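Input record, target 12 of the design panel.
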């Protein structure tokens, strides 16, 4: 009986999310992980596709397309923080390439130093970053870093390989959402606690999808 009590609020929440996607963001089609509750999605979308989660490595959900109407959204920007060395293994360029294709405003805070810093600066100048502001802060002491993580909407670690860093557990502890690649050691914390999301390492489209979804969460 208890399960039935929570069904109606859940349907309302899903419906509100889909309304935002359809009316305000102009989404024309949607990909689903299963056919469960598909009748709700059919109210809003004529085109939908079932992509089972385990088969979804290359088939990415694209939630927000081009030319969307963001005027009525509760929050019109996403604050992202990256913490780590600016080196190839940490793959900060993947984050920059993903943010370049987002259709809402993004503020990126970069904490760290490395040999890619100059290239990242040049990337922001050469590419159209009209919706994105980037701050390079260099090295920051731990106490200040924790406060900065708390002020941001999401911590993103797109590493090609990474061990179990404290930054993920700290972000979770203080309530900041976390998006990491499948090669970040601390991903297990997210899978167990549902405090974030994991995307396949190197997949710009999957990272875009996760950023889009978290942006939508800010509207609910």
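The sequence produced for target 12 reads:
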């Amino acid at each position: 009986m208890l399960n039935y009590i929570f069904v109606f609020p859940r349907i309302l929440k899903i419906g509100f999310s889909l309304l935002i996607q359809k009316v305000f963001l102009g989404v024309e089609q949607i990909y689903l992980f299963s056919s469960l509750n598909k009748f709700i999605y059919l109210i809003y979308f004529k085109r939908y596709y079932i992509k089972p989660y385990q088969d979804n490595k290359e088939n990415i959900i694209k939630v927000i397309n081009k030319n969307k109407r963001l005027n009525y959204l509760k929050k019109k920007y996403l604050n992202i923080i990256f913490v780590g060395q600016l080196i190839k293994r940490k793959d900060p360029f993947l984050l920059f390439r993903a943010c370049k294709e987002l259709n809402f405003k993004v503020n990126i805070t970069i904490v760290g130093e490395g040999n890619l810093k100059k290239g990242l600066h040049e990337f922001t100048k050469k590419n159209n970053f009209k919706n994105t502001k980037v701050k390079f802060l260099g090295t920051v002491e731990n106490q200040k870093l924790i406060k900065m993580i708390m002020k941001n909407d999401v911590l993103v670690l797109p590493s090609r390989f990474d061990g179990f860093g404290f930054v993920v557990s700290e972000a979770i502890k203080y309530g900041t959402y976390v998006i990491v690649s499948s090669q970040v050691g601390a991903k297990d914390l997210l899978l167990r606690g549902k405090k974030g999301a994991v995307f396949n390492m190197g997949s710009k489209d999957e990272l875009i999808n996760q950023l889009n979804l978290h942006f939508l969460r800010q509207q609910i």
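The domain at 77-217 is CATH 3.40.50.2000 (Rossmann fold).
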